[in-house]
Amino acid sequence: MKRQLMALVLAAALMPWPLFLTQGKWWAFVLAAVAIVMALRLLLGPQWANVAGLDLPPRHVLLVVLAFAGVATASQLLLPLVYESAGVKANAPGIEEQVGFLFQALNEEILFRALLIGLLIPLVRSVPLVSLGAACLFTGAHFLLYRFSNPMHVALSTASLATLFFAGVAMNNLYLAFRHIGFSWALHAGWNVVWLPAAIFDAATNQRLNEPQVFERVLGSPLIVAPAGAMAILTFMFFRRGDL
């Protein structure tokens, strides 16, 4: 337990620094992922991959790739409708930036799914409560990041926070059902790589929006909140009867 707590603190310290870079930060996400993996290997020894949620059964590897492709495709189809309703327009993201966000999602999954939930499971007997509690922490971390660490000091709206909470529940449930981060990463990365690396502008003023403003416009859209809520509910179906 002590080593897992130390691993959580180390990952939490290493994960966010690329977010403070303004341009060309794709490489920083890769370096952060390498640093997190090296730190976990040194701290946890041979069990590091299992604790980090990276010990996937071979039969799941292809399924994870297919799930990622499916989520990315669905996101690509949904986002034009979201952009139109939110009054924004977007340029196509660069490949390098998209690669960076594959690792950004990986870093968050190791921290918020494998390490955080790994600490909560021995303390909370109810699997659904673990999922809901971890989702609250996931949402709170994003709120604090944009409210206090970002120069714009944006307070995310209730709708945006609801989307983050629902997405957190869905990814938590996938981790708890399969006990690895493969499918939760596929959901997280398949969504993030399509819109977060893109340059997004206000459709009326043609002014580029900063990341907190993009979060507010996109994640606060009813076209995102509703599917995220439905997805959170549906992922409870992956639990076995004894988990509920």
Layout of strands and helices, then pairs:
Blueprint: H1 2-14, H2 26-44, H3 48-51, H4 58-86, E1 88-90, H5 95-120, H6 127-149, H7 158-178, H8 182-195, E2 200-202, H9 211-219, H10 222-235
Antiparallel strand pairs: 1-2
Structure description:
By secondary structure, the chain is mainly α. The protein has one domain. It is 70% helix and 2% strand. A two-stranded antiparallel sheet has the order 1-2. The longest helix is centred in the N-terminal third of the chain and has 29 residues. The mean pLDDT is 92.
**Proportion in β-strands:** under 5%
* Major sheet details: 2 strands, antiparallel
Based on secondary structure, the structural category is mainly alpha
How confident overall, as mean pLDDT? 92
C-alpha end-to-end distance: 24 Å
Number of helices: 10
Low-confidence stretches: none
Give helix % range.
over 70%
Number of strands: 2
> How large, in whole angstroms, is the Cα Rg?
17 Å
Spell the H/E element sequence: HHHHEHHHHEHH
Give the count of structural domains: 1
